[in-house]
Amino acid sequence: MRTSRILVGLLAAGVAGAVGAALLPDPEGDPRPAGTRPAAAAGTSAAPATTAARPTPPPSRSPSPTWDGVVRPMGDGSTSDTGPQPNQPPVEKLKPGEKPPQFVVFSWDGALENEDHLFSHFRQVAKENNARMTFFLSGIYLVPQSKRSLYHPPQHAAGAADISFPTDAHLRTTLEQVRQAWLDGNEIGTHFNGHFCGAKGGGDWSVAEWQSELDQARSFVTDWKTNTGLKDVPALPFDYTRELVGGRAPCLEGQKNLLTAEKAAGFRYDASSPGEFQVWPAKKDGIWNFPLQLVPYPGKPVQVLSMDFNFLANQSGDNTNGDPKKYAEWERQTRDGYLNGFERVYNGSRAPLFIGNHFETWNGGIYMQAIEDVVKGVCKREGVRCVSFKELADWLDAQDPQVLERLRGLDPGQHPADWSTVVK
């Protein structure tokens, strides 16, 4: 049995997080300090939002060596075609007997640049450590507070959201960071919009409701100039209808119906599955399934979900400002938990490691420091590639399916004596 070589126990809070990741309010980088955020607009029993069927967008464009260098504005000028994305490495198929790279994907839910400047900070950390990351942008972070009624969330009133709409200043800074992140070679995915969890959240939404949420997440990026009225901000340098190929559902809820909507929209992967072991990915309903994984919790024979939120839940429960005397210990636990997961596969099956994050200052910012330490500690090691989910999907699609199937048969810590028995 595949799990025979790893411990499968979970901390109590880790179990809850693995199931729903909704142990406490998740402000997703809210631009206002904790305690000053207004309550989200109350939901109503209004009919769920629906949209007319739309044609499936074309698949992600392959880089063209003959791009003519002309920037082509699209739609209302919010986005543009500037040719192939810069800083994308070539995709190579494994040669017989070759050890697979150790892929590590750092991803961020929400992707708002506020006064903490965490988006810009980690964009720089990535550049300095030969890493590219995935930034899952919440669509309403490009919608002004004054235009919140443009958002029609499924099963909620127009303008309702469980995260705050941005200030005008944060909207501008977020646009700039999204622009620079893509130019650096990072991926701009989607975290959808209103971050609804639990009752009337993603887990209760139909396929049509998820389609509406997805369509709106895309349109808030492609139409931000119309929605904001900003005339002095340049267009984003990509065609989002092509570049958007994956997302993560808020609280990891509703993947079953979401997958159907994503497949119809031409998505290539989904990152909404929780609590799976560190094994090589497989496709689910024709889409790559990139789950948050279970990694060994330091000092205990248990596993915890590979996301800052779940370390927080295990350390201080629903309190984002826990005992400062414990910060140093909690930071070490978080860093070492991720590194435990890394070392297990780096010296074993080489299955990709997926780590999820939020731009937050929970417990004094210890989770941000822990993840920065991990980036600096692993991304320059021999054989390691810190990539976006999109890059990983490109690499997986280039491999021999039989090789991938043999890789999936390895336990996380299982290091073949001879890789030619697997890669052949």
Characterize the structure shown:
It contains twelve helices and 13 strands. It is α/β, with parallel strands linked by helices and 424 residues long. The chain has one domain: Glycoside hydrolase/deacetylase (TIM Barrel). The strands form four sheets. Strands 3, 4, 5, 12 and 13 form a five-stranded parallel beta sheet that branches. Strands 6-7-9-8 form a four-stranded mixed beta sheet, with helices on both faces. Helix 1 packs antiparallel against helix 8 and helix 4 packs across helix 7. The longest helix has 20 residues. The N terminus is likely disordered.
CATH H-level superfamily title: Glycoside hydrolase/deacetylase
What's the Cα radius of gyration?
A: 21 Å
Q: What is the N-to-C succession of helices and strands?
A: HEEEHEHEHHHEHEEEEEHHEHEHH
Strand residue percentage: 5-15%
- Please give the CATH class: Alpha Beta
Question: Which secondary-structure class do the elements indicate?
Answer: alpha/beta
Number of helices: 12
Low-confidence stretches: 1-66
Return the CATH topology.
TIM Barrel
Global shape: globular
Number of folding domains? 1
Proportion of residues in helical segments: 25-40%
Please report the total strand number as a whole number.
Answer: 13
CATH architecture: Alpha-Beta Barrel
Mean pLDDT: 87
Distance between the termini: 24 Å
